[in-house]
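name: query_chain
kind: protein
chains: 1
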Amino acid sequence: MRVKPPTFEGSADPLDADDWLKDIRKTQNLANCTVENRVQFAAHQLKGVAADWWENYCEAHEDAQAITWNEFIDAFRTAHIPSGIMELKRYEFRALTQGKMTLSEYLSRFTQLAGYGRADIPTEADKTAKFLEGLNPRLKVVVIHDFPTFQALVNKAILQENSRRELEEHRKCRAPQNHHGAGSSRQ
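structure:
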């Protein structure tokens, strides 16, 4: 399999930098990149403004050859992902509710934001509780009980949402139609 590592040139959207970090980690794992080569591998994928940042960082560093992967990640995040943005995303995760979203939309948004709220959901039980907490109240009532896994909760909620939608459609079809003038006749 041929691996095409993602590049990063800098971005006006700091979350692009976070996405690049996730992608470069996946690529490094796929390429069986050693711990010692991770910094070089990632640095090679920096272009433009991001490459300029890295060059300046290395020049200011006491021993650029000794920069660890964790140090690279911390420095990269500091330079390209303001902590204020990360805090806003954590807040968004904490405040997330299903509202008018479908369950699939809610699950997608939950999954996307969960990376920013890892401290809030350190265990599977915490993740399940947080997801359940944000469910639409009509759906929550039907699925509320203990679930062995997060996926079991999601599966049950999907089935319940579908059943609720089918019931609503059935009720609409069976609702009596108001026909004016077609009342009972008095004799």
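note: The two ends are 86 Å apart (CA to CA).
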